[in-house]
């Protein structure tokens, strides 16, 4: 039976991690998978998380099962940061813990399907795993352009997709720090009105909250949508903004039309979670809860987030300042974009040459992780770009 299986190509992004690790060149540059790096190229555990983990070790008195919803203290503690002062929107929002943002996206798509959604509109390019999850759940995809060639969001395309949507469609949007383009929507009010008028279900993926302009600024678009529409699904990741990547810390929130509909919705999500992973891993969510329940640790986390955001902003400005040195790549646009990622219009050959001749690793789509650049390697990267783009 098992010999019926055809070999699958490894996930291209994850394969890059291995290729980079095997490259012996000391001055290689990793701009592949989306992890934050410091100016020394490290991805340390957050100071706030270290202390929260210590507290967890000292105080946790049981590792007995919770339930498919995971640590409800964790999901509740995040809510004011996501939804604002009225964190349940009048008792209409409830959350559950998921294995990473991936688990949350999967649950959102599967729950939408269970509710009768048959097709999801998705801006492209998108995070490659979005398409994989949609295919795996068996959801039809209707793609629209996410960004224009000059590095702006293609608002007409998203509004057109929403207007054309059928009542049984959903629309998947990145909340901020778009992966892979870094191009965020600025006219969320128009998107929110279009969603409300069309009556389609929004699925909002928030994987980089706080890494663009600030915690409130980054989530403003999502809040604008949630104020306008009757119901929505929100996938949230703490992998980046708490640096918990391998601990797989995500949350999934459901916003119902009426508070009395929430129990039925949540019960469906619980049974889907039970069938998929039963319960989410506890440790990372519990550490986040400890951070957010302690004012000192929360302050430290906010400082760490600011440090990350400001460093990435500096890198974006260095790259934008080199716009004239590498004509044709529109590096100037990077200063206007947000988060870890940007897309460079490089050919497959140029991307291969960057890797082979210069030890620069980036996704095959031309996506770079700007956090892989720092004071010690940005000049080399710009010179490498100039080399591969000249003739
Ligand atoms: C990325 O896009 O690099 C990250 O979201 C990591 C992942 O799981 O793909």
What is the topological layout?
Blueprint: H1 12-22, E1 29-30, H2 47-59, H3 72-83, E2 93-99, H4 100-115, E3 119-124, H5 128-137, E4 140-145, H6 155-164, E5 169-174, H7 188-198, E6 201-206, H8 215-228, E7 232-237, E8 249-255, H9 262-276, H10 283-292, H11 295-321, E9 341-343, H12 348-358, E10 360-361, E11 367-369, H13 378-389
Parallel strand pairs: 1-10, 3-4, 3-5, 5-6, 6-7
Antiparallel strand pairs: 2-8, 7-8, 9-11
Short description:
By secondary structure, this protein is an alpha/beta fold. The protein has 13 helices and eleven strands. The longest helix has 27 residues, at 295-321.
Beta strand %:
5-15%
Q: Strand order across the biggest sheet? A: 2-8-7-6-5-3-4
Mean pLDDT: 96
Overall CATH class of the largest domain: Alpha Beta
- Please give the domain count: 2
Bound molecules: (2S)-2-hydroxybutanedioic acid
Poorly predicted sequence stretches spanning 5 or more consecutive residues = none
The Cα radius of gyration reads 21 Å
Tell me how many strands there are.
Answer: 11
Write down the CATH topology of the largest domain: Aspartate Aminotransferase, domain 2
Q: Main beta sheet: strand number and arrangement?
A: 7 strands, mixed
Distance between the amino and carboxyl termini: 52 Å
Look at the helices and sheets and give the structural class: alpha/beta
- The rough form would be described as globular
CATH homologous superfamily assignment of the largest domain: Type I PLP-dependent aspartate aminotransferase-like (Major domain)
Taken in chain order, the helices and strands follow as HEHHEHEHEHEHEHEEHHHEHEEH
Give me the number of helical elements.
13
Supply the CATH architecture of the largest domain.
3-Layer(aba) Sandwich
């Amino acid at each position: 039976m098992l010999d019926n299986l055809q070999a699958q190509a490894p996930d291209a992004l994850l394969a890059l991690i291995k290729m980079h690790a095997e490259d012996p060149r000391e001055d290689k540059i990793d701009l592949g998978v989306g992890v934050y790096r410091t100016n020394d190229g490290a991805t340390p555990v957050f100071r706030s998380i270290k202390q929260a983990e210590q507290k967890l070790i000292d105080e946790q008195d049981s590792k007995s099962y919770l339930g498919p919803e995971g640590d409800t203290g964790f999901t509740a503690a995040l809510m004011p940061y996501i939804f604002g002062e009225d964190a349940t929107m009048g008792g209409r929002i409830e959350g559950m813990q998921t294995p990473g943002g991936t688990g949350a996206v999967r649950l959102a798509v599967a729950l939408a399907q269970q509710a009768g959604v048959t097709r999801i509109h998705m801006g492209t390019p998108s995070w490659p795993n979005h398409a994989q999850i949609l295919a795996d759940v068996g959801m039809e995809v209707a793609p629209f352009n996410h960004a224009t060639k000059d590095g702006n969001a293609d608002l007409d395309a998203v509004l057109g997709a929403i207007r054309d949507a059928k009542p049984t469609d959903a629309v998947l949007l990145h909340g901020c720090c778009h992966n892979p383009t870094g191009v965020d929507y600025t006219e969320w009010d128009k998107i929110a009105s279009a969603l409300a008028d069309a009556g389609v279900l929004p699925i909002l993926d928030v994987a980089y909250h706080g890494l663009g302009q600030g915690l409130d600024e980054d989530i403003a678009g999502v809040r604008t949508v949630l104020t306008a529409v009757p119901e929505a699904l929100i996938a949230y990741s703490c992998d980046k903004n708490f640096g918990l990547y391998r601990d797989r810390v995500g949350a999934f929130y459901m916003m119902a039309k009426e508070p009395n509909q929430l129990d039925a919705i949540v019960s469906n999500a619980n049974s889907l979670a039970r069938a998929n992973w039963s319960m989410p891993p506890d440790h990372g969510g519990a550490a986040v809860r400890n951070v957010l329940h302690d004012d000192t640790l929360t302050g430290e986390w906010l400082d760490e987030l600011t440090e990350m955001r400001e460093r990435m902003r500096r890198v974006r400005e260095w790259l934008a300042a080199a716009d004239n040195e590498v004509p044709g790549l529109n590096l100037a646009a990077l200063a206007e974009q947000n988060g870890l990622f940007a897309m460079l219009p490089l050919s497959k050959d140029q991307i291969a040459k960057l890797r082979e001749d210069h030890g620069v690793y980036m996704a095959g789509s031309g996506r770079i992780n700007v956090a892989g650049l720092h004071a010690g390697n940005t000049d080399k990267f710009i010179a490498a770009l100039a080399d591969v783009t000249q003739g």
